[in-house]
Design goal:
heterodimer, A: about 675 residues, mainly beta, 9 helices, about 10% helix, globular, B: about 190 residues, mainly alpha, about 50% helix
C-alpha cells in the first residue's frame, strides 16, 4: 500500500503533464489562449521542440548571416558569406578561397546588410537567401538546403552597395545601387570635381538561375547617394523604387551639406521598360571587369572574370525612370503587400510620406512634372502622394506590413515602433524599443502575403539591457507580438555583429529541404578519396598532395614521412561519413592557416608550408565519437634536400610510391 | 497494482498522442521505427527487445528471401564495400570493427542488413551488437545506405563467406593478406 501512494502521485503528474503538453501544443497556433498572460511561455520552445520560424539576420560588420529560431530567439547557425571564418575554413580552404576573389584581389571581409529571401509569386519560397556586401560591392546567394554561400557576383561601377539586394516578385532580379557615387568610369580625378565626374548606378542582377547570377543591365544616374530599395508587387510588379539623399551632391561633411534640400527623390524605375530598351540594343556595352564566383557541382569554388556590362542612361530609354520628390533625406522605401503604396522613411521628416502607384502612373500619363533632374522627369509631389502619416515618431526609417492593413514603422530617434493604418494614415499604436531601432522585420512583412504574428526590432544601441561586457556590447533584438490590437514586447535576444535587416519564413519551407549529407558516391572533387583503399601521398615537384580520408575514428594515412622544408603540402581530406551531423575537423600544429571542418561526403583542402624540420601531430577537432581522442596522426618534416622517401601508411600508397618517392 | 499500472500506461500513451492531436507542429521522429517487430512478437524475457528483433535485428528489414549467389549483385556490393565499409572492416581480421567473412553464417540476412541500415539503434538495444561495441569501442556509423545497397553488400558478404568456406576446405595453409598498418586484436564475431 505504501507503494501505491507514490504511484498515484506519479499518475497525477502524468495526467497534469498530458494536459499541459496538450495546452502547449494548442497555444502555439492560436493567439489567445489561457497562457497569454504568461509572456515567457509564449517564446518558450520546449527542449526538443522546434521553432515556428527561421529568421535570417545580417551580421553587418561581421560579414556573415545569423540564423535564429523564432519565437525562442535561439541562435541556430552562423553562415559565413563575405568574411573568412577560421571556425570552418571558409575563405581559408582551397575550395572556398575563390569565393572571396574580387577585381581588387582577395578581400577577406565585408559589411553585409540586407538579407533577402528568394520569392515565387511575391512570396518567399525557401530556396535561397541573398545578401549584399556594402564595402566592396557584391551580392551573394546562400542555399537554404545547405546553409552555405554558393555564389557571389561583384558589382562594377559601384561603391557602397547599400540599396541591395532587394528582390522582384519571381526572383527575376536582385538590385544593387551606389550609396557612394564615384567617378564613372573609375579614374584618378579631383574630389572637387564631384558634380561633374561622379555618378550613381542602379544595377539589376539576374538571380533566378543558380550558378548563373549575372548583371543584366546598369542604369547610370545622377551622382546622389542611393540608399535603399524595394521592388513593386502585384500591379507595380515590373517597377523598383530607390531612395536617394544628397541630391545636393556634397562631397564633404554630408551631415550638414546633404541635409539642405527640403525634398530628395525616390527613383521609380520601370525595369520592364529597361528590358525592352536593352533588347532593342539601346545603351552601350561598357568594358568594365567584374568577378563572378560560384561553387561548382564538385563543391569547389571557381572565380571567373567578366568583361563588361550593358549601361543605360535615362536619355537612352524614355519612360524608364522618374523621380518622386520625397522629404527629407529618405532612408527606407517599402512597397505594401497590395503593391499600391510606396512608403518612404524620411529620416529628418516630420511625416511619413506615402506615394500611390496608381497616381504615379496617372501622373506620368498626364505629364504632371515639376521639372527635370539630369534628364530625369521629376513628378509633382501632390500628383503622386497618397497621404502622409502625421506624428509618426522622430527619425522614421523603415516600414513593414502585417497583411491586415497595418504598417509598422521604426523611428530611430524616438526609439519606437509606430503602428498605423494604410489608407487612413492614422497612428493606432506605438511601443518603445531598447534602444534606437534601425530596421524592423515581420515574417514576410515585405512581401505580397505577410505571415505576421511578430515584429522584430533590430536595435542599434544596447546599453543596460544585458550584463555589461566591457566597452562593446552585443546588439539587441526584440521580439514583439503583433497579433493583438496592442503590440506587446515578449523577448530580448542578443545578436551577432550588427544585424541591419532580417527576413523570416515558416520553418517548414526550409526544414523539409535541408541537406543532411553529401553523397560520397557523387563526390566529383578532383582530389576526392572516395575509398580508404585510395588514401595515399603523392609528390608533384615541390608540392605534396595528401589524399586523406576521415571516418570515426581515424585518418588514413595517419603517418606521413618524406616531406621536406621548402615543400608545399596540400591535405585533401575526404570525410567518408554518410551520417547526419558528423563532420570531422582537421588541424595540424604550426599550420599558418585555419582548420578544416569537412562535412559528411565532402572533400576540403588545407595548404601548409612547413618551415622547420620536426614531427607535427594532426588531429580531428570536432568531437566525433567515443574514440575521438584517438583520431590523430603525425607528419614528419625533414630538412630541405634531405633524402627521406615520401611515404605514408595509406593503403593506396603501393601504386604511387614509384611516382611519388623521394629522390 | 495492475490496474494502476494499466492506467499509467494509458496516460503515457495519451501523453505521447497529445502533440499529434492536430495542434502542435508535426515533430520529426528521431528513431527509425521498429514498431512492426514490437507489435508482432512476444517480448524476450529479461530484455527490452522482442524475440523477432533478437533473431532478425532491429530496423526496416523484415524478411529476406535468399536465392543462389548473384555474381552481379555481389560485385555491386564489393564496390560499395570499398567505399563505405573498408575504412573499418576487413574480411579476415579484426580492424576497427570485426572481421566480416562468415558473418552470413553466424547471423540471419535480416540481422546483417539491419545492422548496416540501423546501426545506432542496433548498438543501443540489441545484445549482440552491444557486446560487439564493448569489444571494439567504436560505434558503427550509419553510412546512409539504401535497402538495395545493403542487399548488394549482403550478397558480397555471402559470396566472400562461401569463398572462405571453399578455401578452408581446399587450402588450409592459405596465408592471409597482412595488414601492415595496425596490429589485429583478438578476433570477435560480428
Amino acid at each position: 500500500m505504501a507503494r501505491t501512494i507514490p504511484r498515484s502521485f506519479v499518475l497525477g503528474l502524468a495526467a497534469g503533464a498530458a494536459v499541459a503538453a496538450f495546452a502547449y501544443a494548442c497555444r502555439t497556433t492560436g493567439s489567445q489562449g489561457a497562457l497569454d498572460a504568461d509572456v515567457a511561455s509564449r517564446v518558450y520552445v520546449a527542449p526538443g521542440e522546434h521553432d515556428e520560424f527561421y529568421a535570417f539576420l545580417s551580421g553587418g560588420f561581421n560579414g556573415q548571416v545569423s540564423v535564429y529560431g523564432l519565437p525562442s530567439g535561439r541562435l541556430l547557425k552562423i553562415v559565413p558569406v563575405f568574411s573568412q571564418n577560421p571556425e570552418n575554413g571558409w575563405g581559408y580552404s582551397e575550395e572556398t578561397k575563390p569565393m572571396l576573389e574580387t577585381t581588387f584581389g582577395f578581400v577577406p571581409w565585408d559589411d553585409a546588410h540586407h538579407p533577402q529571401l528568394s520569392q515565387t509569386d511575391g512570396v518567399p519560397d525557401g530556396r535561397w537567401l541573398f545578401i549584399n556586401a556594402n564595402n566592396t560591392p557584391r551580392v551573394a546567394r546562400i542555399s537554404l538546403a545547405t546553409f552555405e554561400t554558393e555564389e557571389i557576383v561583384e558589382i562594377p561601377q559601384s561603391a557602397g552597395n547599400h540599396a541591395s539586394p532587394f528582390i522582384t516578385e519571381n526572383s527575376e532580379y536582385v538590385v544593387a545601387a551606389t550609396r557612394f557615387s564615384v567617378p564613372v568610369p573609375q579614374r584618378d580625378v579631383s574630389i572637387a570635381d564631384y558634380k561633374a565626374a561622379f555618378k550613381g548606378t542602379l544595377t539589376f542582377i539576374r538571380a533566378n538561375e543558380p550558378g548563373e547570377m549575372d548583371i543584366a543591365f546598369q542604369l547610370l544616374v545622377p551622382g546622389y547617394d542611393y540608399d535603399l530599395a524595394s521592388a513593386g508587387k502585384g500591379p507595380s510588379h515590373g517597377w523598383a523604387f530607390f531612395t536617394s539623399y544628397n541630391t545636393e551632391q556634397a562631397n564633404t561633411l554630408l551631415e550638414i551639406n546633404a541635409s539642405q534640400n527640403d525634398k530628395d527623390f525616390i527613383a521609380a524605375v520601370n525595369w520592364k521598360r529597361a528590358e525592352e530598351c536593352v533588347a532593342q540594343g539601346r545603351g552601350r556595352q561598357v568594358a568594365v571587369p567584374y568577378v563572378h564566383n560560384y561553387l561548382g557541382e564538385d563543391r569547389v569554388a571557381r572565380s571567373e572574370r567578366k568583361a563588361g556590362v550593358r549601361v543605360l542612361e535615362p536619355a537612352d530609354c524614355d519612360g524608364m525612370i522618374y523621380f518622386l520628390p520625397t522629404p527629407k533625406s529618405p532612408h527606407g522605401v517599402d512597397v505594401d503587400p497590395s503593391g499600391e503604396y510606396i512608403v518612404a522613411g524620411g529620416k529628418l521628416a516630420t511625416v511619413i510620406p506615402v506615394h500611390s502607384f496608381s497616381k504615379l502612373l496617372a501622373a506620368i500619363e498626364a505629364k504632371a512634372f515639376e521639372g527635370e533632374a539630369d534628364g530625369i522627369p521629376v513628378l509633382r509631389y501632390d500628383a503622386v502622394i497618397a497621404g502622409e502619416v502625421q506624428n509618426p515618431g522622430l527619425g522614421p526609417l523603415h516600414t513593414q506590413f502585417d497583411g491586415n492593413g497595418y504598417a509598422y514603422t521604426s523611428a530611430f530617434i524616438s526609439s519606437e515602433i509606430v503602428k498605423w493604418k494604410l489608407g487612413t494614415w492614422e497612428v493606432v499604436d506605438r511601443i518603445p524599443t531598447y534602444y534606437s531601432i534601425g530596421h524592423l522585420m515581420i515574417p514576410g512583412g515585405d512581401t505580397r502575403e505577410p505571415w505576421g504574428r511578430y515584429v522584430i526590432a533590430l536595435n542599434k544601441i544596447t546599453k543596460d539591457r544585458y550584463l555589461p561586457t566591457g566597452p562593446e556590447l552585443v546588439h539587441a533584438a526584440q521580439l514583439i507580438d503583433i497579433d493583438g490590437e496592442r503590440m506587446e514586447l515578449l523577448l530580448d535576444f542578443p545578436t551577432m555583429g550588427e544585424p541591419h535587416y532580417a527576413q523570416a519564413l515558416p520553418a517548414e519551407l526550409v526544414a523539409a529541404r535541408s541537406v543532411r549529407v553529401f553523397d560520397i558516391q557523387r563526390n566529383t572533387h578532383p582530389h576526392a578519396t572516395r575509398s580508404e583503399a585510395d588514401a595515399r601521398v603523392e609528390r608533384r615537384g615541390n608540392t605534396v598532395h595528401v589524399y586523406m580520408t576521415a571516418i570515426r575514428s581515424h585518418f588514413t594515412p595517419d603517418n606521413i614521412e618524406g616531406i621536406r622544408v621548402g615543400d608545399t603540402v596540400q591535405f585533401h581530406v575526404t570525410n567518408l561519413e554518410q551520417d547526419w551531423d558528423v563532420p570531422h575537423g582537421f588541424a595540424a600544429m604550426g599550420v599558418q592557416n585555419a582548420e578544416l571542418l569537412i562535412m559528411p561526403g565532402e572533400t576540403r583542402t588545407l595548404t601548409w608550408v612547413p618551415k622547420q624540420p620536426g614531427v607535427y601531430p594532426f588531429y580531428c577537432t570536432d568531437f566525433c565519437s567515443a574514440l575521438h581522442q584517438e583520431m590523430q596522426g603525425y607528419v614528419r618534416v625533414a630538412p630541405a634536400g634531405a633524402d627521406v622517401v615520401l611515404t605514408s601508411n595509406g593503403p593506396g600508397q603501393g601504386r604511387v610510391l614509384a611516382a611519388g618517392g623521394g629522390r | 497494482m495492475t490496474v494502476i499500472r494499466a492506467l499509467l500506461d494509458l496516460f503515457i500513451v495519451l501523453l505521447m498522442l497529445a502533440p499529434l492531436a492536430g495542434c502542435g507542429p508535426a515533430g520529426e521522429s528521431a528513431e527509425p521505427a521498429a514498431a512492426g517487430n514490437a507489435a508482432t512478437a512476444a517480448a524476450a524475457p529479461g530484455l527490452d527487445i522482442t524475440e523477432d528483433e533478437l533473431k532478425y535485428g532491429i530496423g526496416p528489414i523484415r524478411r529476406v528471401e535468399l536465392g543462389p549467389l548473384d555474381d552481379e549483385l555481389a560485385e555491386q556490393g564489393e564496390r560499395l564495400f570499398e567505399m563505405k565499409c573498408m575504412a573499418c572492416h576487413r574480411l579476415d581480421e579484426r580492424y576497427v570493427g570485426p572481421a566480416l567473412r562468415g558473418v552470413t553464417e553466424r547471423r540471419t540476412p535480416e540481422y546483417v542488413m539491419n545492422m548496416m541500415l540501423n546501426p545506432g539503434e542496433m548498438v543501443r538495444r540489441h545484445p549482440a551488437a552491444r557486446a560487439l561495441l564493448l569489444a571494439h569501442y567504436t560505434e558503427m556509423p550509419a553510412q546512409n545506405l539504401t535497402e538495395a545497397e545493403a542487399r548488394a553488400l549482403l550478397e558480397y558478404l555471402r559470396e566472400q563467406t562461401a569463398e572462405g568456406r571453399e578455401e578452408r576446405e581446399h587450402d588450409r595453409g592459405h596465408d592471409r593478406e597482412h595488414d601492415r598498418r595496425r596490429e589485429g586484436g583478438a578476433s570477435t564475431n560480428p
